[in-house]
Amino acid sequence: MSPRERAGPGGGEQHGFVPPRRTLPRSFYRRPVVELGQALLGQVLVRRRHGVLCAGRIVETEVYGGEGVDDSAHSFRGPTPRCEVMFGAAGMSYVYMTQGALFCMNVSAQGDRAGKAVLLRAVEPLAGVEQMRARRRARLAEGPTRRRLQRGHEHELAQGPGRLCLAFDIDRQLNGLDLTDEQGPLFLVRGEAPGDIRWTPRVGLNPAAFSFRWRWRAFDAASDAVSKGRSAGARRWRRPWPEACPLRAD
Question: What are the start-end ranges of the H helices in 45-200?
Fold first, then answer.
């Protein structure tokens, strides 16, 4: 039975989700970073807090190619106190704060100490929907977004990396966690791969970066939970062929 089926109709309350007994193993993350960016689609992110589980199916990722390779990566110039997790073991959480005072979560890749990671951009909620809704609404002023979330619109709860971390209550305190530990507060379990995966350039990068146009954003074309930019050029790019990139996936 899939995680989606375990969640029950309407996909999403805590009592309906029973996570598999084992998390994704370390070997799952020890693969080329572009390959991991695709492999994470369909896997299930689980957050445990005060005995309550929130869970969601990953539907959008972005790949970051590491030291000396990808000038859009925090790790491009080598390890710093901020990004040192990217240079450690594969399958660890790298959480950082954006200029907008939101957090973003990455998963370290390969374990080759080259600073590679995959950003989780969007998740389709499966469990703990009301907890996610309460966290999102607590940060919103009265307006159309707050009213939409009050009426439903579960697909918007974790639609984008900042919203994802708000919904799952992920902050810098969860940086450096081992995502293979099923007893921990944050881990990943096996789900089902999407049937239609698309690739586009990443979102919100500096246009002056030489990696700006690399098509390293992957998403499930069938999911409504994918963040903005889902349709732009989506039909044209089905494989991650960046321009002039040493980490081509072909």
Answer: 129-138, 144-151, 161-168
Helix (H/G/I), strand (E/B), else coil: 211: coil
Helices (H) and strands (E) in the chain, counts: 6, 8
- Assigned token pair, 250: 């072909």
- pLDDT digits 0-9 by tens, 206-224: 999 999 989 999 999 999 9
| pLDDT (tens digit per residue) in 153-182 | 678 899 999 999 999 999 999 999 999 999
- Residue that is written with structure tokens 């990396």 in the block: 161
pLDDT, tens digit, for every residue of 83-113? 999 999 999 999 999 877 799 999 999 999 9
Give the C-alpha separation, 117 to 36, whole Å.
9
Rounded to an integer, what distance in angstroms lies between the CA atom of residue 63 and that of residue 214?
A: 10
Q: Which domains does the chain have, with CATH numbers?
A: 3-220 (3.10.300.10)
At position 113, the amino acid (one-letter code) is R
| Contact criterion met (CB below 8 Å) for 102 and 168 | no
State pTM to two decimals.
0.85
Cα 20–Cα 24–Cα 30 angle in degrees, nearest 5:
170
